[in-house]
Amino acid sequence: MIRDSSQKGYLLIEVCVSLLLVTFILVLYTNAINIMRLIDFSKYKLIATNVASRKIENLRNIPYDQVTGTGTLTDPELGKLPLGSGSWNVSVHQGDLKQVTVQVNWKENQRDNSIKLETLIGQNGLNPK
Question: What are the transmembrane regions (predicted)?
């Protein structure tokens, strides 16, 4: 559209397009920040799950009679979690079964997070024949 040089100011369509572009940029920026937070949370949750799984596998690989008590996790991967810590507990479930609970905790963005894995360990496995 051709404007007369005596007309000053912006057309309504120009203002609308500018607002649309600014809104689009703000939406992209907000989504990028949320995606980065989600990626960090997923990374920390994966590390915590791997630490807990390793502890359960370690307890499964020792003789049944030695699977007792409680303790603090000492896995080096805990250092990758912000304020990472963990504990494990073994209790008698029923009969020849022991219940193992492993919990890993970390703090991210002033929010406490944790995962807990539980499993049963049997003297002759879970399905003895």
Answer: 9-29
